[in-house]
Amino acid sequence: MMRFCVLQNSRGLHSQLKDSVPVAGLCPQGAYGMQDSLRSGFTSVKNELLPSHPLELSEKNFQLNQDKMNYSTLRNIQGLHAPLKLQMEYRAARQIQRLPFLPSSNLALDTLRGSDESIGFEDILSDPAQSEVMGEPHMMVEYKLGLL
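The chain above was modelled as a monomer; its predicted structure follows.
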């Protein structure tokens, strides 16, 4: 007996009827009605819990909300090109990194965001030299290059 899951598009009832396609083997429960731990990992109650404090979600998304507000302000003041240019600079600054086993300071990204002039708890408590985990440099580079 093979079970089928229906993958639906969430655009509306009409499009769901038209776009519904039975697909075998892609059920979240797996082909036999059980969770496939090998593909999806172990279930964790921690992932299913709601935020423990009302401000937790706001603090997690603070940088994203700050960026959205900056983009909308730039768009209203300078036009459409300003947020696009800033996003391209952010993307370029994120791609500049050292070798995988060396910690990156992300100085260019901090300069673009304006956080290079402020000292926060992450500057003191996240010192990479005091990290608990130090990987094997050769294995980390091979993994990054896709050789492993």
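Residues 62-78 form the longest helix (17 residues).
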